[in-house]
Amino acid sequence: MQDGATEMSEISDQRIHDLLRRNFNGAVPDDGFSAQVTRALPARQRPRPWLLPAAALAGSLLAWVTLLPSPLLQQVAHEWLTGGFGAASAGICVLLLGLSLLSCGWALEES
After folding, report:
1. Is-contact 92 78, C-beta < 8 A?
2. In a 3-state reduction of DSSP, which class is residue 109?
3. Which H or E run includes 91?
4. Integer CA distances (angstroms), 49 to 21, 43, 101, in order
5. For 69-94, what is each residue's pLDDT tens digit?
6. What are the C-alpha distances in Å from 84 to residues 25, 67, 74, 87, 97?
7. Is 84 helix (H, G, I), strand (E, B) or coil?
8. What is the tens place of the pLDDT at every residue in 40-70?
């Protein structure tokens, strides 16, 4: 049932598209209304390249301060200082990797 509905929608969409293209005579004259509205809009804001790194640093510091009393973070610190690598260290590494990938994806999407 779902496949038939999708197929029907695609056929209908194509017919509507063809009908609109066939009867399109160009832009509708608006006596300069569009240009007037465009001039009245506020200017685009310039991108702030410092904002993303600053927010990432602030978020990292806030997370670090929040996790300081955590036994998990203390366990990771103990493992790293003694040269070991246990489940706590692996979990933190996976978490950091995931957050890094998320941040990279977000940055790429915004650029």
Report:
1. no
2. helix
3. helix 87-110
4. 42, 18, 19
5. 888 888 888 888 888 888 888 888 89
6. 73, 20, 13, 10, 19
7. coil
8. 999 888 888 898 889 889 988 998 888 788 8
